[in-house]
Design a protein that fits this description.
75 residues, mainly alpha, 5 helices, globular
Length: 75
């Protein structure tokens, strides 16, 4: 799912990360699928953090990061 998110047009990615409730769900799906496909301790920590309320804040950081670097923060 993380690869599918990265293949989406940039405008769709930004819209998904802009809406508060949707960005949290998107963060959960993308972070956990990245951990399951690639593994790694940092991805696991981020996936666990996203489940709690910090996921919304991380979604806003990802929005800015996506605008600047065309990828998600620490992805």
């Amino acid at each position: 799912m993380d690869k599918a998110f990265m293949r989406l047009p940039r405008l769709i990615q930004i819209i998904l990360l802009l809406i508060p409730g949707v960005n949290w769900i998107t963060e959960i799906i993308v972070r956990w699928s990245a951990f399951l496909s690639k593994g790694g301790l940092l991805r696991l920590i981020l996936a666990i953090i996203v489940i709690f309320g910090v996921g919304i804040i991380l979604g806003w950081i990802d929005l800015i990061w996506c605008l600047l670097f065309k990828k998600l923060f620490l992805q």
